[in-house]
Amino acid sequence: MVHKRRFLFRDRPVPAKARRRFARMTLRLCLLVLPAISALTTGAVSLPTCNTEAMSTQGGAMLDVGDMRFAFAQTEGRVAMRQVTDGTRKAGQRLAELTITLRVAPGSSALLTPGIPNQRVGQGRIADLEVTIQSRDQVVLSAMAVRPSEVHIAAFEQAPDGRASAESRLGMLEHLYSDIFRQAPTSRFVFSGLPGAARGSGSQALALDAVARARECVLQQLPPGTHLRPLRWDTASLALLHPDRHEGKWVRASVHDGAARPVRGSVTAFARGEHLACEAKTNIEGIASCMLFDVHGHDDEEEDQTTVVTFPGAPRPGSFLLPRTLVKASLSRRH
């Protein structure tokens, strides 16, 4: 016996009551699903996993630079930096020592939370390293050591009670972001001790992202009722595009915010090698383009084929679009 397959509502019109029920079910489904879709399309991300043990606490404040290790000890107004190991040291050679005098850090950066406690900073040179120290309340909070083509960064959590205050670490991270951004973008960056980020190395953009994640972790640790009103940090996205012109050394890049919206009217800088540079404002599509020229007036062809794109950041109501760099092999015009 052959049974005919019957389909729902095939042979009769849909009753009005069923249509209303179906409409209500569809509306409930949309209310549940649309917020999730909106979070994805606007670039919203979940908060980082904040490892409160990530700060460098074992053995106090220590900074590793290759085979060298440095220890820090603070007294009133000064930090003593002492080299404790060196895999390349010759027999009888003394390990280096340095005393760094601290001063109050300038607090005018747009990245800084208004009312954040003033940090104390100091700089000095030891071995082949230019060192910058951040400190507050007799606590060494971070150290950054710079040598040609390398930047080493370490955050610490050393205090008499074993923990620096969240306010102090917030100020340290905001200063640290600015300090990292000022370094040569083509350097290799090595970082450790940042909450929410494992020890890592890579590009300047990678180090800046690690600091931004660490700041999100510290914001979660601010005490209830704090007077601080930190700005929301938003990360820009840069992309190097193929030039749209044949003549000269044209470069082109796009700038978008964390919600994938084009950033308009912001000056974006380009550089290639030691001599070629130009800058342009982004258009309505978030694209900036200009022709590289030799800032020193030389006629020699630039051999370096790596292009550096720099976005200086932009303040927004209640938030700040962070400064960012992109280092990428140069692109030629598509034919």
Can you offer a commentary on this structure?
The protein is of the alpha+beta class. The chain has two domains: 62-230, no CATH class; 233-329, Immunoglobulin-like, CATH 2.60.40. The chain has three helices and 22 strands. The strands form five sheets. Strands 5-6-7-8-9-10-11 form a seven-stranded mixed beta sheet, with helices on one face. The longest helix is centred in the N-terminal third of the chain and has 26 residues, at 16-41. The protein is globular and about 60 Å long.
Q: Which key terms come to mind for this protein?
A:
7-stranded mixed β-sheet; alpha+beta; disordered N terminus; 335 residues; globular; Immunoglobulin-like; 3 helices; single chain; 22 strands; 18% helix; 5-stranded antiparallel β-sheet; 2 domains
